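**User:** My hope is that you can spare some time for a protein that puzzles me. As I understand it, each token names a local backbone shape. I would be glad if you read both lines and explained how they fit together. The protein I mean follows directly.
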Amino acid sequence: MDKIIVAFENDNNRRRVCELLESGGMIVGGSFRSGADVIRGVGRISGCIVVCGYKFPDMTAVDLAHNVGNRATVLVIASQQLLNMIEDERIFKLATPFSRSDLLSSVK
């Protein structure tokens, strides 16, 4: 499964999620900091899974999900408080803190 894009505003969070996915045998096809970069990446890797945080410098995960539409599945990792604000049923959610197995099973 090389159709995974990881996107977090924070470099450490982005790197850590990539490491967790790769340690589980998954291949990360792109790692980005901004929503605009993710949208361009989804254009190149249609049908991918976007694993991301709640906000980026240029938009929120909800905005991102609307922009990518059906071209990608969006999994947002954030605090339960932020996840409660997401009402879009197309967005999958994983609350922090989470375990490696929680992350891997959510992506699968």
Summary: The chain has a mean pLDDT of 95.
